[in-house]
Amino acid sequence: MSTHFWESKKGLLLQILLVFLPPVFVLKSVFLLPAMVVSLLLARGMLHLQNKTWRDVGFRKPKYLGRLLTITLFATVILFPLSSVVIQSARMLTNSVPNLEAFKVIQGNLVALTAGLVVAWIFGAFVEELLFRGFLLNTLAKLFSHSGNPLWISWIGAVFITSVFTGVGHFYQGIVGMLGTGFIALGFSAVYLLNRRNLWSCILAHGLYDTVAFTLVYAGILL
């Protein structure tokens, strides 16, 4: 297929489908993490078809390191209490609680906490951010721009769909968990855009958020 096809609406939609099929097929199984690596490799290939590299979507050394760290830390500090408010509101509206059973093994278990943080930083912070912010968000924005939408509307639409996609991907946490993770994903997208689409910003924000959350689970505060 020609480059023109891969940059068309159909081509961009097909790329998204191909990249995210592997983890969808093995969701909630031991093969999820390897499937995410496969998706990452596929995303690299799809970006090539768009005449882009990871660098083009933000995986590059930040021009102003101090600015990136300041915005990232500030956003993370704000995001945690805001997401807590969203989750508590969702609990009251739905009369249900998020299903965090998968994380109970961390509670009071230092070895499990350490292993969990390693997985969170590699697959949550690094792989997920390259896939969702680096590939999906940029591809969706490019897709929406084909309809003649103003650039800012294309990006807003891309942020919204990416957040919904993230929330649905956490269906095992129940409706409250999906709403919470969707909101958190929206926050990571905001960090990414505020830092001029530098992926290191949302990678760090994601990793820091998970570190705080896992530590609270370990201490028995979050569960």
Describe this structure as you would to a colleague.
- The protein is mainly α and 223 residues long.
- It has one domain (59-218).
- Helices cover 74% and strands 0% of the residues.
- It is built from 8 helices and no strands.
- It is globular.
Short description:
This protein is an all-alpha fold and 223 residues long.
What is the average per-residue confidence, as pLDDT, rounded to a whole number? 92
Report on the biggest sheet: none
Whole-number count of domains: 1
Q: Assembly state here?
A: single chain
Instruction: Report the C-alpha radius of gyration, rounded.
Output: 18 Å
Report strand %. under 5%
Can you tell me the overall shape? globular
Number of strands: 0
* Fraction of residues in helix: over 70%
Please tally the helical runs, counting DSSP H or I stretches of 4 or more residues.
8
- Structural category is mainly alpha
Low-confidence parts, pLDDT < 50 over ≥5 residues?
none
Straight-line N-to-C gap = 50 Å
